[in-house]
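Predict the assembly for these two chains.
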Amino acid sequence: MTDTESLLVTPLDALHRELGGRMVPFAGYSMPVQYPAGIMAEHLHCRAQAGLFDVSHMGQAELVGEGAAAALEKLTPADVQALKPGRQRYGLLLNEAGGIVDDFMVANLGDRLFLVVNASRKHIDLPLIESVLPSGVKLRPLADRALIALQGPAVAALVPTDLTFMGIAQIEIAGIQVLASRSGYTGEDGLEISVHADQAEALARALLAMPGVMPTGLGARDSLRLEAGLCLYGNDLDETTSPVEAALTWSMGKRRRVAWDFVGADTVRDHLDNGVKRLRVGIRPEGRQPARGHTAIQQNGAVIGEITSGGFGPSVGAPVAMGYVARAAAADGTALDLMVRDKALPARIAAMPFHPHRYAR
Amino acid sequence: MTELKYSKDHEWVRLEGDVATIGITDHAQNALGDVVFVDLPEPGRVVTAGEAIAVVESVKAASDVYAPISGRITEVNSALVDDPALINTEPTGSGWFFKIEPDGPLPEDLMDADAYNAFVDTLG
């Protein structure tokens, strides 16, 4: 509402306004938090049919040159070198202390790597990556590309592709050349589509004209990813949190956990060998009252952790949350108290995802 | 139907006889979005104008609801506990929050509908 002049806009800004999007500042961009249908309807529609999300605020970049994968591996414990052409993977960028600088997606496009990083972190990630590159490897930010996510069970029939989960390829949609990956941030099957900014609006209009595709804002994106148990950088992950604490050990390659040749490896290795003091867990409050981020978690009157993301899960039909608790209290079913407005709200540790993933594996 | 009065905190007040019924405005419910939970005050509680006495939670955020007038809570709308979406669908009807027996005349700063709509327009 304030200082809108200083906000950046995406190539779909005019379309959002035409669709009645309620624009809010997010990571320096003016973004639609919802459209007239509202967060609840948009969320449920995405799980039932298909939602279209503008995620053009995210950072896209290419890494080109001999040794690009090995260079990136200095900063991440993901196995980038083993990634086959046409495949994408989730990874973490780490700092010297083994803390998470960002979470990101990396794809092997054959002659180059394609990276997608968080909007709020791209100004940190890209210089960091650049700082470790040998002379033959170049980082190219793709500022002239938009990113559109099309998510939901209807997507596979609306936009048929040969892609399997985490596959990526140059394809044509509605006559427009795009780079599409079968991935997303909702727990549903779907595509994430990188397109030239000049053609983004035409592509979005073509997708929205397909039966059952609803424009979906950041509000539903957040409730969908929370039900799917997926982390939001800045809420659930930060530079003081290790991959082991964040329960993201699965994102580290086996080879990488033998060689320990990435930044922060000493801490990560210590956390794996000797255990961690706190762990990221799922939490289900009893009743209907949501517990939001920064809510203190108590057990027998002592603070043992904090909620990092929390809200109401429209598909679960109940409040859901994730947060960090002391390792001794991290087992599923453990009873906790969430301190919401000075009152103890009973809750239990619960397995994630809260809503089952429906990826096309 | 008695004319509604409005507060700057986006509550409406309908005074009928000795009791004022209070809820949140259509503008407020629209700004909040889908309501999923409401925490209501205890009947019998004595409240002061401006005091936060209820909480309304939407999918995206929690907001306080203030007592627009001073007095005693006589009744709360228990239908909201099981069906908080009434606040979105009928904000000035079956989505009411609580009733207060005022301890004096209504405050002068409550607005009529025209003044409230003009106030909302200034919020951009």
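Chain B has one domain: 5-102. The two ends of chain B are 30 Å apart (CA to CA).
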